Amino acid sequence: MAAAVAAGPGALGSLHAGGARLVAACSAWLCSGLRLPRSLAGRRVGPAIWAQGWVPAAGGPAPKRGYSSEMKTEDELRVRHLEEENRGIVVLGINRAYGKNSLSKNLIKMLSKAVDALKSDKKVRTIIIRSEVPGIFCAGADLKERAKMSSSEVGPFVSKIRAVINDIANLPVPTIAAIDGLALGGGLELALACDIRVAASSAKMGLVETKLAIIPGGGGTQRLPRAIGMSLAKELIFSARVLDGQEAKAVGLISHVLEQNQEGDAAYRKALDLAREFLPQGPVAMRVAKLAINQGMEVDLVTGLAIEEACYAQTIPTKDRLEGLLAFKEKRPPRYKGE
């Protein structure tokens, strides 16, 4: 691998010392034995953490749709590994109806546990976060629980929420937020941590913390401007404005908006369709593509292009790349194994 990278054009070695920033751990994220060029090693880029040593899933989708057994952590979070034609898709279903799916201590604990398991699961290809409660995605912080906390407890708990949301943002596989209802405060911050957001037109979204004399604390002040631009993000946060699905689509907060169906899961169904589109693609390519995009967005263009070059090099020696070429030659679907 090192030889493959070193053989590339000289752009990697000619980066400006002050402008080039990379995460030193990203090569560990790709997997052991895959290294970035020495000229990029040790450079920093934002807060992202890609050092989970994630190895892509083997095998392709089977022909039919279905569910496997449900991995129950607690009823507040349901983790489902889909089977048959959807094999590789994992659905995190928030199920805290009595609290409008608000982020309680227990729910944060369950999310943290689930994310820790998923980031090292070799079979996971795409993750969907949805609600199992009709009309609600996540109403944000559990204010009843928050009211019982002392001032000294609030800061550490918000830090835990931020850490879990960051872990979701740093998952090495594509993530999709299916917003079929209310997503306020921390609920929208949870969705902002996902790679793709889809919503029903009836959904309501907003960072409303300034109404409570606080600010978004789960990454909202950083991710919303990156999603829709600084000026508009400031307007929405300063006003605590709530948008519906159509308005959210118009400002670029979500990628797709759907009319809600009778079952109340239009966004989830769209998310599932998107996840199915991702399944046939090369697992290694999916992960390094996400890495290249995320890291490249935090740096100047010259450094970003060097990141792309380094990430492309990780795909060259893979068996999947050779399988893709062979499948093209033989005019058949490729059978990728993530190797």
Automatic annotation (TrEMBL):
CDD domains, per database record: crotonase-like
GO MF annotation: an example: enoyl-CoA hydratase activity
Protein name (record): AU RNA binding methylglutaconyl-CoA hydratase
Subcellular location field: Mitochondrion
Stated family: Belongs to the enoyl-CoA hydratase/isomerase family.
InterPro entries associated with the record: ClpP/crotonase-like_dom_sf (IPR029045), Enoyl-CoA_hyd/isom_CS (IPR018376), Enoyl-CoA_hydra/iso (IPR001753), Enoyl-CoA_hydra_C (IPR014748)
Pfam families per UniProt: ECH_1
Major location category of this protein: mitochondrion
UniProt KW keywords: Acetylation, Lyase, Mitochondrion, Transit peptide
Gene Ontology cellular component list: mitochondrion
PANTHER family reported in the protein's UniProt record: ENOYL-COA HYDRATASE-RELATED (PTHR11941), METHYLGLUTACONYL-COA HYDRATASE, MITOCHONDRIAL (PTHR11941:SF12)
GO biological process: fatty acid beta-oxidation
Lineage of producing organism: Eukaryota, Metazoa, Chordata, Craniata, Vertebrata
